[in-house]
Design goal:
- This protein has 168 residues and is of the alpha/beta class.
- The strands form 2 sheets. Strands 1, 2, 3, 4, 5 and 8 form a 6-stranded mixed beta sheet that branches. Strands 6-7 form a two-stranded antiparallel ribbon.
- β4 and β5 form a beta hairpin.
- The radius of gyration is 19 Å and the shape is globular.
- 22% of the residues are buried.
- This is SH2 domain-containing protein.
- InterPro entries: Immunoreceptor_sig_adapters (IPR051751), SH2 (IPR000980), SH2_dom_sf (IPR036860).
- Keywords: SH2 domain.
- Pfam families: SH2.
- One of its GO terms (cellular component) is cytoplasm.
Length: 168
């Protein structure tokens, strides 16, 4: 089952569609407005958002870790379907840094995506691809859930997509 969170910005799509027709002859009819209640099919949305270079879909945590270890460089990353696979937490971002694999929840709230548990304020994104693009430009704060008290906070940008290296 696909998450309902993957709906695109319909108003933006409609305005782009309208703009593409504006240069044509006035004889041509204007396109029909896009209905907010009729989003594209979920499979089509996934194709637009999820890049096979970093999205591995429904694999186990161990299989996904194997993909990261094949790359074996700080900043190797991928996105997999969450073990919980709920509409609230549909995906998990996995990052390899200093020989440790970090599993970071990708949550969905009010049709927007965010990283982490929600205990701290977090930036929201319209698509998972936007999260990946953002953290390819800016380092991601990596928190070791087993060692939170150490105070050590590592940061690492997403550099090496590990989705095309299946070990299963």
């Amino acid at each position: 089952m696909r998450s309902a969170c993957l709906s695109p910005n319909i108003a933006s799509s409609a305005s782009r569609l309208q703009a593409s027709f504006s240069h044509r002859s006035k004889i041509m009819p204007a396109p029909l407005p896009v209905q907010a209640s009729m989003p594209p099919p979920a499979d089509q949305e996934d194709e637009q958002d999820m890049n096979p270079q970093w999205y591995v879909g429904k694999v186990t945590r161990g299989q996904a870790e194997g993909c990261l270890r094949q790359v074996n460089k700080d900043g190797a990353f991928l996105v997999r379907d969450s073990s919980k696979r709920s509409s609230i937490q549909p995906y998990t971002l996995m990052v390899l840094y200093q020989d440790k694999v970090y599993n970071i929840q990708i949550r969905c709230e009010q049709n927007e995506f965010l990283l982490g548990t929600g205990l701290k304020a977090s930036e929201t994104f319209l698509m998972v691809a936007h999260i990946i693009n953002h953290y390819r430009q800016s380092p991601l704060l990596l928190i070791d859930a087993k060692n939170r008290e150490s105070g050590q906070q590592n940061q690492c940008p997403l550099i090496y997509p590990a989705g095309l290296h299946p070990s299963f």
